[in-house]
Amino acid sequence: MNRLSCGRTGRARRCRLGAAALLLLAAAPAASLAQPAAGPTVSGLLSAASVHGPGALLDALSRELARDPGLAATPGAAAALARAAAAPVQGFVGARGPVYREIARKIVAAAPGNARGGVERAVGEALRPYTDVQVHIAPPPGRPLVPGVTEPQPAPVASTGYRVGSFTLYPDVQAATFYDDNIYATSHNHVSDWVGTISPRIAIQSDWRRNSFYAEAQTDLTGYASHPHENTADWHVLTEGRIDVTGQTQIVLGAAVLKAHEDRASPDAVEGFEPTPFRQQNGYVGVVHEFGDFTLRLGGAVEHIAFGNVMGENGLINNEDRNRFRYTFGGLLRYEANPEFRPFVQAMGDLRRYETVPDDFGFNRNSDGFLAGVGALYTLTPDLNGEVFLGVLHREYKDPAFKSLTVPAADATLRWQATRRTTMVLFVERSIDETTLYGSPGYVYTLVGGRIEQRLSDRLSGIVRAAFAHSDFAQAGRTDNDVDTSVGLRYRLTPKLTLGVDYRYTQRVSGSTLVDFRRNQVFFRVGAQF
User: Which residues of 248-284 are buried (b: 16+ CB within 10 A; e: fewer)?
Assistant: First the structure.
């Protein structure tokens, strides 16, 4: 399930194409609705239409705008409508970014000419809490609370883009410079540096009445002022298509390729002279079918990850024994009759296979596992809603030295639009993740956190985020406790240009004091749409 940018410090809450997330089999939370709000009839109509998929939701939005142009006449009304339309989107299979873009396009196009600039800005701000949970394409291979030295920013969804035939192009660029007082995430002898980043991105989206196509490419370039061996050049490319077979059946399929690097704070990070690079490829297919008051989802995904070798003090560090495949498959059945309470049951299989068996320590890390449980999407009030899932996680390891792991599964989100200007999201999630720590088959990762965004004026917003993660390494007697907090400001200088400043503090307290660290970072950001 997708989460906020502070979730797994970014890892978890985004449009990621990692194995489980590729399926998007976990139903995602309905979002909150602020005042002045679209009336309950409009919200109910949009939610009911969403059961039939994104095409039906967008058609219903168009009908409501044609019926009542006042829904987009002012920035406040348009923002409320955008939140009402965005609420059910996270329950869809596949990438959600294109749907958010289309919601924004329809609302902005319906606004009066003299109010269009304000409406576009308000709609973008209203949708940002949804796109903020999608800033990563795939989870990093290690699971530190800190995903990397930079925090990718979500793609703007309210941009009008550039029409090319039946497609729309959306280019944008994010850049930042920041000070990091502990670039190696070490417990002692901290090394600091100034760092610069730039991330150009382009997306293309179809404007077809039926079916859809979406593709995106991005490069993330990072340069250190005094430690050029830490410089990285990461990138990703993804594509996804949706085939509307009938009004009740959809097929979603897609793929992604990315090159990235492992952060120095990763529990599996090696003492290399440069960050460990890795490549990841994913492919997936899913089917969604509606019958009566139920929606059935079936899907499968394949993921491959390969790590590069790096030089260390004692020569070449072999990372090839970490290369692995992951196969996931499963289904979800959800009852849709009541938009305010939509219970579901979910089950998913998860097979992990390493290319090198045994690894350099002599262990066979292949394993089989599953996730099963029950949950519900809920709407307590138009401003307070979310999702809860409870179940069980289980893994069986092939190596006789490794014991099986069975732990409770918990995944929940609470989204609250406290006022027109205040948004809060709280979340909890749990997983069993891979490690190469000697003697440990894996670790149980538990995350709790939240994010508050306060609009201080029409152009200025403040953001506070905090997350706590607990990693329990099985059979190793090691536990890690990570804290990630930040405060920041965002200022929209023009409709196309945003400035930002952030302070971020991260800390790990571990049973192994060698991996303890504290880190302070100060970011200065700029983002531009074209």
Answer: eebbbbbbbbbbbbbbbbbbbbbebebbbbbebbbbb
